[in-house]
Amino acid sequence: MSLNLACVMGRLTRDPELRCTPDGSAVVSFTLAVNRDFAPKDGERATDFIDCVAWRHSAEFLSKYFSKGKMAVVEGRLQVRTWKDKDGNNRRNTEIVAENIYFGEGKKSDSSGFQPAQQEADRPEQAAPEPHYEQLDIDDGDLPF
Hints:
Layout: E1 6-12, E2 19-20, E3 26-35, E4 47-55, H1 56-65, E5 71-84, E6 90-103
Parallel strand pairs: 4-6
Antiparallel strand pairs: 1-3, 1-5, 2-3, 3-4, 5-6
């Protein structure tokens, strides 16, 4: 049995650039800056830069709705690619192949004047309607319980 599942949340290090393969498949390579959960004794948290790649609809979604600095949650699988560079040296890269991409933070108000919907606590109180119950005339003598 095998399991290959990766889930990370971090900020994009640059704007995603949508490209197409020769067969027309959309692809985006991007890097997420992911803060580590712990801080060493000096108090500075380290940041890992995780390479990711998204294909087809995920690539189009990412390039349309995300930009540098936006928080993203990426679910996918780890992939290790090996190749030879132009000097004949063996090279290796580990990346997450994104299968699902989610927004990592809520939408904030922007310069267009968009304001998010009011929270329940911010709304003026309104009297809740009184529930209406109707009496049913049924004979439950035949019920087995």
